[in-house]
């Protein structure tokens, strides 16, 4: 059996690596970073393009992958320009005009203007903030005419604010350089490809090394290790998911057996209609209804409205803490169970009904076995294979539902963590969440293979 499981692991691990690699690449190509979202974008000079050591970023600026394919108009060290808006600004100019030396000279001038303006005291210039915003807006433009007009506006504002003559001269120099970029454009140069080999000193190689070692890095929001953040959130999600799955499949089996009995024929259509109607109600509607009727002070405030009850004093025994936290999870588990029970019950009931007409079931009844023995010992045992398949595909859906429930009931689990991570562009944590979810999916497949191995003798013989 161990050999059988190891063979399955060798097949699914490459899939996990591909998924996480795609998330890593996506985190690098999506515009904007967590640092930009938090701190705003602070310009740095083009000296970083030629001197990568001169940077305020504590992490070394290295290329994304082992190699890069770029246009000949683009320098092979453009990745060192920070922040990202500056790099995208330079890329757009290269794509439009292609003259990198002229573009680099103009960018030096812009960097010098930003530095000079930042060194002038705020009290000396009442409109310094407006002037700074005008200068920063240049990095969001792509057309030479728009850039030149913005610099003309900056010059007029600088004269109005009585700024030093060297600053105004620098602005006029920038206007002339934009004109040169426009006149000496080489738009065809970016059509010729160029290949650059960067070696192992790249972001993906460092990430892959840490990934293999189990180090997912730290969150760029609060510098907390990713494993620690996810483990704390996953505890609540795991608790909700396991309780919900246990209730769903237990109730689904019992309802399927009850509906399959001949004595319940008159109730069968009524209960199936109720289940089909309940299956059409979205999860968040069920959660909100339960929250309103069983946690609101307007009706029956039997359960807490939000949270997980983890704000307990240190030193409290675990059993006491679990008893205290249990009411916080009753409504979320009920919501997931009610939303998923109709579908699972319908699938198991269909499998049981299909087996009812098989010859070995008719033979068991002909032998005089009771209906209970026939259903529980013969029918359910043979219905396990489709149920195992159902469980494998249903587990990710329950985890997704748990994420929705956590947002409704404000439970600090994977759902709340995922929403906050996406909003903050915290890609290290996002990659970790994808990894954990991938591991759960892989674990579900391996668990299903183990169940198949135990339930079907044919698979044991083949293995």
UniProtKB/TrEMBL annotation:
Pfam families: BPD_transp_1. Its main location: membrane. SUPFAM superfamilies: MetI-like. GO terms for cellular component: plasma membrane. GO terms for biological process: transmembrane transport. Keywords: Cell membrane, Membrane, Transmembrane, Transmembrane helix, Transport. Residues 234-448 form the ABC transmembrane type-1 domain. CDD domains: TM_PBP2. InterPro entries: MetI-like, MetI-like_sf. It is found in: Cell membrane. It comes from the Bacteria. It is a multi-pass membrane protein. Signal peptide: none annotated. The chain crosses the membrane at residues 238-259, 271-299, 319-344, 383-409, 429-455. Coiled coil: none annotated. Belongs to the binding-protein-dependent transport system permease family. PANTHER family: DIPEPTIDE TRANSPORT SYSTEM PERMEASE PROTEIN DPPB-RELATED. This is ABC transporter permease.
């Amino acid at each position: 059996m161990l050999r059988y499981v190891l063979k399955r692991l060798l097949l699914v691990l490459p899939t996990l690596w591909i998924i996480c690699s795609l998330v890593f690449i996506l985190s690098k190509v999506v515009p904007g970073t967590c640092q930009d979202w938090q701190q705003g974008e602070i310009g740095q000079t083009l000296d970083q393009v030629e001197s990568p050591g001169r940077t305020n970023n504590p992490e070394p600026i290295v290329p994304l992958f082992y190699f890069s394919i770029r246009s000949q108009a683009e320098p092979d060290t453009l990745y060192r320009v920070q922040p990202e808006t500056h790099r995208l600004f330079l890329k757009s100019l290269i794509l439009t005009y292609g003259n990198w030396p002229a573009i680099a000279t103009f960018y030096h001038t812009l960097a010098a203007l930003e530095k000079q303006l930042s060194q002038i005291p705020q009290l000396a210039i009442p409109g310094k903030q407006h002037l700074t915003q005008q200068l920063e807006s240049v990095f969001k433009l792509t057309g030479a005419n728009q850039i030149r007009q913005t610099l003309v506006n900056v010059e007029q504002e600088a004269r109005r604010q009585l700024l030093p003559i060297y600053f105004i001269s620098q602005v006029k120099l920038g206007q002339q350089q934009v004109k040169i970029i426009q006149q000496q454009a080489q738009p065809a140069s970016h059509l010729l490809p160029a290949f650059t080999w960067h070696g192992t000193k790249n972001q993906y190689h460092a990430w892959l090394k840490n990934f293999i070692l189990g180090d997912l890095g730290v969150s760029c929001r609060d510098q907390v290790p990713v494993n620690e953040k996810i483990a704390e959130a996953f505890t609540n999600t795991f608790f909700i998911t396991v309780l919900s799955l246990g209730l769903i499949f237990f109730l689904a089996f019992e309802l399927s057996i009850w509906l399959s009995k001949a004595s319940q024929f008159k109730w069968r259509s009524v209960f199936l209609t109720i289940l089909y109607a309940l299956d059409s109600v979205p999860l968040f509607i069920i959660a909100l209804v339960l929250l309103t009727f069983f946690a609101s002070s307007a009706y029956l405030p039997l359960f807490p409205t939000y949270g997980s009850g983890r704000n307990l004093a240190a030193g409290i025994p675990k059993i006491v803490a679990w008893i205290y936290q249990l009411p916080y999870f009753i409504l979320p588990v009920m919501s997931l169970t009610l939303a998923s029970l109709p579908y699972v019950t319908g699938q198991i009931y269909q499998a049981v009904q299909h087996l009812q007409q098989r010859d070995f079931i008719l033979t068991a009844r002909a032998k005089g076995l009771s209906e209970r023995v026939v259903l529980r010992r013969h029918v359910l045992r043979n219905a396990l294979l489709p149920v195992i398949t159902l469980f494998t595909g249903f587990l990710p859906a329950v985890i997704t539902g748990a994420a929705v429930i956590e947002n409704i009931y404000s439970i600090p689990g994977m759902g709340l963590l995922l929403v906050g991570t996406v909003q903050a562009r915290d890609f290290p944590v996002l990659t970790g969440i994808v990894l954990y979810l991938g591991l759960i999916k892989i674990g579900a497949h391996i668990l299903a293979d183990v169940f198949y191995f135990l339930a079907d003798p044919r698979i044991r013989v083949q293995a």
